[in-house]
Amino acid sequence: MSTVAPSDWTTRPAPEGPQGWIERATEVAAVLATDAAARDRAGATPYDEVRLLKDSGLVTLLGPVGHGGGGQDWPTAYRVIREVSKADGSIGQLLGYHYLWNWAARLVGTREQWEAVEAEAARQRWFFGGAVNPRDKDVVVRDEGGTLVLSGRKSFSTGSKVSDVTVLEGVLEGTDSHVFAIVPSDSDGLTFHGDWDNIGQRLTESGSVTLDGVRVPWSAAAGYVDKAFRPRVYNTLNVPTIQLVFARFYLGIAAGALETAAVYTRTKARSWLHGGHERAADEPYVIDTYGDLTAKLWAAEALADRVAGEGQRLHDAPDAVTEQDRGEFEVRVAAVKARATEVALEVTNRIFEVTGARSTASAEGLDRFWRNVRTHTLHDPVAYKRREVGRFVLDGALPEPTWYS
Fold it and tell me: Considering 191, 206, 229, which residue would you say is the last residue of a domain?
C-alpha cells in the first residue's frame, strides 16, 4: 500500500476542531484510495492500514485531550468514518468499530474504569477490536475469587487480529449476567482464527475467536462494583450508537461508489452508438441517474447528521438519559439505518447502468462497493428496523432494548 511518511502527520500539530479532523480523514482516504481495489482482491490482513489510522491520529479522535486525544464528539466521528469509508469500506468499518469499543468502557463501566481506559488508549494510540457477537452464547465466565476466567468461542471478532486490545463478552456462570472486559489482544488463551472469507468487507478480520481460559481481574469487569453490576439506561445506548456507525460506513461506501463511477463515466465510458451524443456524460439518462442517486444519498446523509446531533445530547448527559429518551432515539436511528441500507444498495448497484459493460472488469474494482454494502447490511434484518418505526408511529411503542434494538 502506498503510504504517507509518518513524519507527514507525526511532526504536524493535531487537527483542530471538527473540520480539521474531517480533513485529516480525507487525507487518509486519499492514501487508501490509491490501491483500494488491489488490496480488496488480495484480502491481506490490514496491518499497514491500521498503522495509517494510528499515525494519522484518527484512532484518538474521541479520546481526552489531556492525554493526547482529539476530544471530539460522535457527530464528528461519524463524519470521519464516512470519509474513510468512501475509499475503503473495510477500513471504515474497522475505524467505526474501534470508536465504539473505545467508548464501550464509558457506556458500560464505572467512571474510574472508563477514565483509566480512555486515558491509556489515547496515550498509547490503542486500536480496539471486539468479540461481542450476541448470537453466540457459548462464552462462559467463571468466578475464581478475585479473577474471572473466560472460555468459549465467538463466530465473529471484527478487528481483533490487528488490534492492541479486544473487548470480550460472556455470561457469568450460573446467572444471566453479561460481563464485558477489555484485554490485551495477545492475552494467553485468546486465539483469532483468521477465517473471515466473505464476498465483501474482506479486510475487516471478522473471523472467529476461541477463548481458552482467558483470565482477567474482577476489577476489569465493566460496570461491576463488589461483583454486582450497576445498571443505567445509558448502558443500552450501545445499540443505537453502533447502528449509526453502520449507517455511516454504508453511506460512505455509497458516496465513494458514486465518485468513482463519475470519474469512470467522464474518462472511460463510451456513449451509446444510437444515442446521438459524443460523450457518455452527455447522455440524458446518465445525467438523470447521477442526479437521482445523488439526491437520495444527500437526503440520507442529512437525516443521519440530524440524528447524530440528537444522540450527542444523550452522550453529553449520560446519567440523565431516560427510557423514553433512549427509545425515541432508537426509533430515529432505526429510520436512518433503513434509509442508509436502501440507498447504499441502490447506489452501488445502479452505478453500472451509467458506466457500462466494460466497467465490470475486475481491474476496475467497481463491484467492491456493492459487495461491501451487501455483506454488512445483512448484519441484522432491516425489516425489523422499519418495524420499530412503524410500531412507534401507530402505537407509540418504544423498542425494547435488546442486542439489536
Answer: 229
